[in-house]
Amino acid sequence: MHSVAHLQSFKSVAMTGSVRSAAHHLGLSPSAVSHHLKLLERETGLTLFTRRGRGLCLTETGASILGEIEAVLDSSSRLQQRISELQESRVNRLSIGYFASAGTRWLPELVAYLENRYPDTAVQLNLAEGPWRELSSDIQLVISESQELRFPVEVDSNLLVADPYVVAVPDDHRIASPDSISLAELEELQWIDNDIGDGPCRTILFDACARAGVRIHFKHEAHSFPTALHMVSRGLGVTILPRLGIDPLPPGVRIVPLADPAPTRYIHAISDPGHPQQELIADAISALRDLAVNDTPQTPSHG
Known about the structure:
By secondary structure, the protein is of the alpha/beta class. Helix content is 42%, strand content 21%. The chain has 10 helices and 11 strands. The strands form 3 sheets. Strands 3, 4, 5, 6, 9, 10 and 11 form a 7-stranded mixed beta sheet that branches. The chain has a two-stranded antiparallel ribbon with strand order 1-2. A hairpin with a 2-residue loop joins strand 1 (49-52) and strand 2. 27% of the residues are buried. The model has no long low-confidence stretch (mean pLDDT 87).
């Protein structure tokens, strides 16, 4: 691929017939322009210019490719203009990738905060359920099994909160009153699944059950927390889910904490270190952390 600078030198010399004039037009030294022409001829294996008096003129070969070179330069100019437009647009937009339970609890408050602080910035929310694979938003909320998880070097990562798992049971069930219950004590009950097949929340639960020697046996499957909770309210079984996912809690459901060591998911905010508005990114993540730390879903009291 030939350098745009080399092609610009070619076109300018072709138009002016002079290395010195081309250099003045391009804001380069004459030696730099001459070097560009030599490199271009070496790369192509073609003789593009011939001397005429004190100047240069195109050979027949050089003249035959002038139109194509002008087209490449025009295309390059349009591309650069489009990139500049996109960069300018990005300055006035912040995209946030989120999963459903965080969206319900935190993001309305976060968007209201950003609207007040940065009224000229549009916030775009992108629902991104399932395992994290790439940074597709300026800020991405990510679930992991570890608070020390290392992300790729091209992203900045910030731990927001630890979110322990709880069990939702019918409020008239015999296990609805304990202060806590172990995974082993739940093994013989009917379980209701609440996540997609390879979802991170499901993986964390499976790993915790494996460590505790508890066999997984789902009687029913639902692919969302609200659906599973409503199934619990109908007495169809119990469901284990992160504490953040219990809101809104339907009538007839009681939340019981899991005994230590309870499975826990860790919620991180990862961001693009190359974003042009790092102050905005840092402020948004700080506000997210405050929302996460101060957030306590309401659960019915025992008794």
